[in-house]
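This part of the workshop introduces the protein records we will be handling. To make this concrete, we reproduce a full record directly below:
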Amino acid sequence: MSKYDNEIWAYALKNALEFGSTDAGKVLPKLFRHGLEKKDIGKIMADMNKIIGNINSMNYDVMAKEFSKYEQYALERDIKEEGLPELENVKGKVVTRLAPEPSKYNHIGHALVFLIQYLYAKKYKGECILRADDTNPEKSTLDFYNSMKEDLSWLGIKWDKEIIASDGMNDYYKYAEYLIKSKNAFVCSCSQEKVRELREKMQECPCRNKKTEDNLKEWEEMLERKFKEGGRTLRLKGDTKSNNGVMRDPIIFRISYAKHFMQEDKYCVWPVYDFENPIADAINGVTHVIRSKEFEMRYELHEHLLRLLKLKMPNIREIGRYQITGAETQGRVIREMIEKKEVIGWDDPRLVTIRALRRRGFVPEMFQEQNPFFSVL
């Protein structure tokens, strides 16, 4: 049992009664209001998953009866603050960042989070960096990159510095080699399906125990284009038994021969988001990151990675994700809708991308008014 069992029952039952079932992602954010710290997430996940499994097997009447026992623990406090809340651990200059991936057109939810990042930099007279997280060569395009900057400028955001993540590839390679030499990473030859299977079963991959010199040799061969796509990946040694799935020896580099819109054919081994993003934050001096709670489970991995590399973790503040009902926001789904001709493009008036809303006649002030903190300017 964990000391948060009553709260887990309360919030999980409440969510299941409303939506028919529940999951850890719906319950975990509520526990932070009761004192849960990020470093303790792993300690409660087993109990939480067990409780959620029990609840999801109940019918509605049983759920309602059980909720009456735990309802008192689901009393949520209203948090009312005037203006932009103060940041924690402000020492020296505050540096925030906007880090869109130029693989899609940004929507209204992105816009509101971007504005918060920008406003914090202004509030503390600090610096706001625009970083294009472009290390997914299959999806990143020049059109998305240019649109990203156009949308941000239209919103009234004036960044102080612009960085292209893929310009730091040699740094990422250097850190990858360090992890291999320190026995914290290994080259894996397993198929994607096998990797997924072993992670789901919480079992170690046989590639995990290769000698360091063999890992270094295969890493060099990856860089030298001696393997086909999917033939090798570089994986971080995490915790295969962790209740947090992202910690189970995640892939941190993969092979892709897709032509990059800026780097062209210069690189064929690319870092995944969970490697590039925290390292780019650290090496570019970002002090504070404000992001939505969908990234909450990745905090443990990012902290572990930066600790291994002796890099400084920025202060992270997670905020509730903006829910947009009645409109699709996932890039993958919108691409499929365009291919099926269900919408005419990314600026179709039925979408909520920034360019679609601009086409419908919305003005930047609308986004600013929807952001409860914009008055600080």
In short: The chain has 14 helices and nine strands.
